């Protein structure tokens, strides 16, 4: 019996690890099932376009909420789901997406160049706009008050590596373990990079091949540092029509940029009341605007690529501007397949820079607040989260005038100040009803992708029925996806989870993990891997599929492992008065440990002297047992 169980688990692990042979056609088949189930004129029209192979025409179909009657929530919701399902799926339809994105990137650079010239003329007194200049002065004062003095120690304490690729690490090997030993920097930030490294002796010793306790202060600086002219511009899939531009920063630049971003985030939360760790307030204002019509939601096009250098110089205090300008990449490298291009940026920062999100959120929040005060509206109805802005309707005209002067472009298709529709931070409301559709963004190459799709469809079905059962019109689509999960893996079932969007309105959203098929309790009990916790704790045990870490040798470079252990066991600062030690390393030497990277915690050294190091994208898939210590959420039957 025991061998039978072991054999079954082994076969399940092998099945979970396997890569499914799939194509875009499989996702299109799901879409065809969905469109047939929705059964609206628009969905049936999309189905005909797909069957005729007219995917470009299909993906260019747009939906306008203003064309729907205020009372017809169901019709809008059905059409929105029909159009949105494939909207973010990077289907191969013969379009050169990178070329489209490159042209868009160049247009953003031209906008930034015009903005820089406009602000230079403004400083020289050659351009005059009283209303706009009044708002800019108010925004300058607000930002200066929020940021205060730049504390270089507080900056250094918050520096960290990001999870993604950089100039010297790529692919799966992008953990901090790999980044600690392969450092790069722009030439003008080389001194800052060296100072950051030498402020922690264990890190510097590892770079020079010394033991952790050997002094490295007298050794030649920067011998381990690769100098780069700037960041590397690349493009990643976004939709079937266009790619997204990403700037891959040199390693120590992104390390310092993320420190500045964290410091900005902390100052904004403390002094401006802008918490960038949650989207809930923006979603609440979108709901309020949908119900009462008092709040507008504004979205901008390519906001991250149109933050002009002279705008930032104008709005930020000089010490903060100089620090950001020091560690940012001023030059970009791009290969278009024919030749290498060198770009001298007109923008200040872009996607990939570690402080871009915090910087743009602060700028838009300061400008929006200033416009609201100038129009005598309620400042409590203002919010900015990246380029998603919520603002009183009566202040919209002034804000649009100001942000266009600052070089940004309002996305008219996603900005709403009339009708009963509002959209902000992943929340769509039509007359107060959540109508957010499900977007399919990936091919179905692994069983997790099938779990994610099935669970996403069912969560939308729950919201469509206002949390009283699942909308039967989506059952056929959900069942279509579930049938593609291998029968032995369909038994991996687990609970739905609550995700409260905003407590003040009492709205509760439904989410789930992607390692199992989310189900009600009675459905879970029909599986083989759900049972009561035998240890006497109140809860349920269920199995799922997760990605595990991979082992690399720790004995070959103990000094690097020592520095990595110090980096990994750092404590995040709760406030500026209680920061972690310099560079985020722990004050206590943890000794010789191995690191369980899938949990991010320290563990005991294994006998073979290896340690788990995370690989981006996950390592081999394995079975995992989890404890759910709560009452199962019953989303109800399909009705």
Q: Any overview of this molecule?
A:
Helix content is 39%, strand content 17%. It has 639 residues and is an alpha+beta fold. The protein has a 4-stranded mixed β-sheet, with helices on one face. A 4-stranded antiparallel β-sheet has the order 8-9-5-10. Helix 2 (24-38) packs antiparallel against helix 3 and helix 7 crosses helix 16. The longest helix is centred in the first third of the chain and has 27 residues, at 97-123. It is globular, with a radius of gyration of 26 Å. Mean pLDDT is 84; it is low at 571-609.
Chart the SSEs and their pairings.
Layout: H1 2-17, H2 24-38, H3 41-51, H4 55-59, H5 73-84, H6 97-123, H7 130-147, H8 152-157, H9 176-179, E1 183-186, H10 190-198, H11 201-207, E2 225-228, E3 231-237, E4 243-248, H12 251-272, H13 280-292, E5 295-301, H14 309-315, H15 318-327, E6 331-335, E7 340-344, H16 356-374, E8 383-385, E9 388-392, H17 396-405, E10 409-410, E11 421-424, E12 427-430, E13 433-434, H18 447-464, H19 475-482, E14 493-494, E15 497-502, E16 507-511, E17 517-518, H20 521-524, E18 530-532, E19 540-547, E20 550-553, H21 558-568, E21 594-596, E22 601-603, E23 610-613, E24 621-628
Parallel strand pairs: 1-2, 3-6, 14-17
Antiparallel strand pairs: 3-4, 5-9, 5-10, 6-7, 8-9, 11-12, 12-13, 15-16, 18-19, 19-24, 20-23, 21-22
Helix pairs in contact: 2-3, 2-19, 6-14, 7-12, 7-16, 7-17, 11-21, 12-16, 16-17, 18-19
| Gyration radius, rounded | 26 Å
Helix content: 25-40%
SSE class: alpha+beta
- Termini separation comes to 41 Å
The mean pLDDT is 84
Return residue spans where pLDDT drops below 50 for at least 5 consecutive residues: 571-609
The counted number of beta strands is 24
Number of helices: 21
Side-by-side strand order of the widest sheet:
4-3-6-7
Strand content: 15-25%
Categorize the overall geometry. Answer: globular
Major sheet, described briefly? Answer: 4 strands, mixed
